């Protein structure tokens, strides 16, 4: 793990990416570039194509047109990610319930016998410490909170000493405090290891809190790319509507409720309330 601090992040290029399912175009000619070492957030509402885009970026699916380059090398299958040293943090964390935390984090190295057991154990311990989970090696995933499980998933991605980490909705399903912890972990790892971070999320607070640059996506297209300040000043009406959508109290017109709910029937020996 000592090599992490001395490495450089990988650059990512996406050119003309298109993807359709059963005649419905989901990705509509995407073009963008992620600079080495930056935190780049792709932000947009649910259903806009973010997860489909991520599948193309990590080689889980082949695009209908266009191509993805990592450090100038084409990505056409998951095997290419090993060559380009790409880590992936899934939305569900995707931990093995039957394995300990230490076994989950060290799974890739152990499965492929890339290091002796003692070296794997040492690397696991060091990596868990990086995400604030030192001493949890012998715990089971069920013993950890959702936020802690996300940090275990990040540690597992780190163990391959990646140049690029992709995060799929890293704060989804977390309470606000856990979401802040995950945001801080992403920023800390970016600064300490210089890894390039690509984050796919609909979480506006996360995007503006961690990003060097943000791409706003809707309906299979990138609408704009810029720094957080530039995105806030973007004149596009849809972008402004998306950013300004806030929490408010919703009142219901009684006419929307339909027929009145009848009172409960009284039972023998009891009077109706």
CATH fold name of the largest domain, please? Rossmann fold
* CATH-defined superfamily of the largest domain: P-loop containing nucleotide triphosphate hydrolases
Largest sheet: 6 strands, mixed
Number of domains: 2
CATH architectural category of the largest domain: 3-Layer(aba) Sandwich
Distance between the termini: 68 Å
Report the sheet-strand fraction: 15-25%
- Count of DSSP-assigned helices: 10
Helix content: 25-40%
Shape descriptor reads globular
List the helices and strands in order. Answer: EEEHEEHEHHHHEHEHEEHH
What is the CATH top level name of the largest domain? Answer: Alpha Beta
Q: What is the SS-derived class?
A: alpha/beta
Computed over alpha carbons, the radius of gyration is 22 Å
- Provide mean pLDDT, rounded: 86
Architecture overview:
This protein is an alpha/beta fold and about 270 residues long. It has a 6-stranded mixed beta sheet, sandwiched between helices. It has a 4-stranded antiparallel beta sheet with strand order 2-1-4-5, covered by helices on one side. It has 10 helices and 10 strands. It starts with 11 loop residues before the first strand and ends in a 29-residue tail after the last helix. The chain has 2 domains: about 1-85 and about 160-245, P-loop containing nucleotide triphosphate hydrolases (Rossmann fold), CATH 3.40.50; about 95-160, no CATH class.
